[in-house]
Specification:
By secondary structure, the chain is α+β, with helices and mostly antiparallel strands. Helices cover 40% and strands 18% of the residues. A hairpin with a 5-residue loop joins strand 1 and strand 2. The radius of gyration is 22 Å and the shape is elongated.
Length: 327
């Protein structure tokens, strides 16, 4: 049968002999003590929650997390969300699948985006910040990973090249916004936006699926980026022939450490400089708008004016383009 993608599924249809990537799995109990499997299945167009009733520990053990399953089942609507009731499963050798069917990719040219990022960073005037950013850009292993990494496993820009696309969008946004606030440092803004998520190159892996590395789980991208700034500042100091300015380094580390905005969302520090609060809000704006547009585009019910409830956004989204500009 020709492959159908998650985005195409409707409630009440059969799914026959389709291969999915296992994004996550969990063995759970019903209220009466029976075992069932809660599994998130994915392809390049999105994810769907799967449930395997009357499951066993042996069945659970055959499901390779981060691997692939061939599935038979049926779709249904549950509390306004689509889910897949799995009736039969069979593990699939990863070597036999086309990863392009399962790992979403940016629609933009990666090399063109990377060149644009570098051109914007060349506008930084402060010699110390320029020398620091140079150490990151010339790190070939880091740069190659930066060009291909997703910005997240699920939330926003969760696809190959997503981190680069998100970062470039923020740099372009800064060039529009910062001139309106002349007391903001454009140099700190550009450098801070480039560095704010760079730790995700170590936090996330994206070979057969998007997941957290051990380093990502133990350290996290926020702290990792702050560590790298300290290390790269030492290298920049050698190039400059003088100590790297401590307050500039601390300001950039603070931007990274505070860009999530609140302790609740993982910020070790709250934004305490104008540049830090500006970067937090620009980052949040780009991420949230991306999520809204994605859910509108991917909603399976074309007849409805509303998307399904989005738990991460705590709302349904009104899909109608009342001004006729989102073609």
């Amino acid at each position: 049968m020709p492959r159908r993608y998650v985005r195409e599924f409707q409630a009440g249809e059969r799914v026959e002999d389709q291969v999915f990537l296992i994004s996550s799995k969990d063995l759970r109990q019903t209220s009466n003590g029976a075992l069932y499997i809660h599994v998130v299945l994915a392809d390049r167009t999105g994810q769907i929650l799967g449930r395997v009733w009357q499951a066993t520990e042996a069945m659970y053990g055959t499901m390779p997390e981060g691997g692939f399953l061939r599935i038979k089942g049926r779709t249904e609507s549950y509390k306004g969300n689509l889910q897949l009731i799995v009736e039969a499963i069979r593990p699939v050798d990863a070597a036999t699948v086309d990863l392009a069917d399962f790992l979403p990719r940016t629609e933009h040219d990666v090399e063109a985006m990377w060149e644009r990022v570098k051109n914007i960073l060349r506008e930084i005037k402060d010699p110390a910040i320029r020398a620091l950013i140079k150490q990151f850009v010339l790190d070939e292993k880091l740069s190659e990973c930066f060009k291909n990494a997703p910005a997240a496993t699920q939330m926003h820009h969760a696809y190959i090249g997503g981190l680069l696309e998100h970062t470039l969008g923020l740099l372009e946004l800064a060039k529009l916004v910062v001139p309106h606030y002349p007391k903001l440092s454009m140099d700190l803004m550009l450098a801070g936006l480039f560095l704010h998520d760079i730790g995700k190159t170590a936090e996330l892996c994206f070979d057969t699926s998007f997941k957290y590395t051990d380093q990502g789980q133990l350290v996290g991208h926020v702290v990792q980026a702050a560590i790298w700034i300290d290390q790269k500042a030492e290298l920049a100091a050698k190039e400059l022939g003088q100590p790297f300015p401590h307050e500039i380094k601390w300001s950039l580390q603070h931007i990274v450490l505070s860009h999530h905005g609140t302790y609740e969302f993982g910020s070790p520090r709250l934004p305490a400089t104008p540049e830090a609060i500006a970067i937090h809000h620009l980052d949040n704006l780009d991420a949230k708008l991306h999520m809204y547009f994605r859910e509108i585009a991917n909603d399976p019910d074309a007849a409805s004016s509303w998307t399904q409830y989005q738990r991460s956004l705590e709302t349904k989204i009104y899909k109608k383009d009342v001004m006729g500009i989102r073609k």
